[in-house]
Specification:
Length: 186
């Protein structure tokens, strides 16, 4: 449905001033939000600025970094071997496989970042940096907008195993949330 209401000249001038202030102070965050929501192309099209986009774009969310975080008895090289079998480049992965390191990991860096495609989680502390009022950082990432998809590995308990890792990656591929191959643009 098309909105046929228009603003008066005075209302437009007030809106223009308010937009200038908000955009000036929050431009990067707004740009990341629009990009992460998948609406950047639509916004630029409405503004008549679609020529600013590269001709052939890659969906960076599908080809970005996959964070694997949580306690793991499986070594990183074993997980990378599983990923390689599925067609992933090792440079697509960032690992934090130590329970204590997960406490201080800078989770907020993933929010509204086009760099990250997914977060695969195993056992990790409930009390971590950046969780705010949420019961755990996993819940915080699942409930707040701007985070990449969060996949809990394990059935009854969170646990990183080779088979859980493989299932998580296959699930993301099947849901078309990831593409195999190299990490684009990072």
């Amino acid at each position: 449905m098309v909105n046929t209401e228009t603003l008066s000249i005075n209302e437009l001038q007030v809106l223009e001033q308010n937009l200038k202030e908000v955009l000036y102070n929050n431009f990067s965050e707004i740009l990341f939000r629009v990009n992460y929501s998948g609406q950047l192309s639509e916004l630029l099209n409405v503004l008549g600025l679609e020529s600013l986009l590269p001709y052939q774009r890659v969906n960076s969310k599908k080809q970005g970094v996959i964070l694997v975080i949580g306690q793991s008895e499986v070594k990183q090289n074993k997980l990378l071997a599983v990923a390689k079998e599925l067609g992933f480049d090792k440079n697509r992965f960032e690992f934090c496989l130590d329970y204590n390191e997960a406490k201080t990991f800078p989770y907020r860096k993933m929010q509204y970042s086009p760099k990250y495609s997914a977060v695969l989680v195993g056992a990790m502390p409930h009390s971590v940096k950046d969780k705010g009022d949420f019961s755990s950082m996993i819940t915080a990432m699942e409930k707040q907008e701007g985070y990449p998809p969060v996949i809990r590995m394990g059935s009854n308990e969170l646990k990183i195993t080779k088979s859980n890792f493989e299932q998580a990656l296959k699930g993301l591929l099947n849901q078309n949330l990831l593409r195999g191959g190299l990490c684009e643009g990072f």
